[in-house]
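Look at a sample.

——
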Amino acid sequence: MKSKNRNLLQPTTYNLQPYRRGFTLVETLVGAVVLSILAVAVYQSYAVVIAATIASRAKIAATLLANEQIEIIRNLSYPQVGTIGGTPAGVVFPEQTLVRDGIAFGVQTIIAAVDDPYDGIAPVDNAPSDYKLVEVIISCTRCRDFSPTRFATLVAP
């Protein structure tokens, strides 16, 4: 009789599971955890982008509002440039709330008379109010991470 040429030093292996049909519970759980981590990361990045967009829109709206307020003041006659009940007196509201782009902004306007030392200093100076310094401060209490925006200009007669 012929004997099979078999190496007797190597162990014999048997395939106990010839056909695999599907995933085990551990593989399914690991896949679900990996998918969940990826979904949370994508959602967080989406939330950061949306928050940055909202903050940018608020900053742009505040800048446009400040520019609008300064242009309104520049178009007034020089004696009217001042705050109601303030010094110098004028027609500008010192504080108001205005809505732009669906966002409520607090607008504070500060107007101060400036004496230029070039033509003399009061009381020697006949016109101690050479020009006016206008500062517009825009704030938003409901906006997240919004620092007040300040704009200043000089108004001369």
User: Anything to note?
Assistant: Residues 25-74 form the longest helix (50 residues).
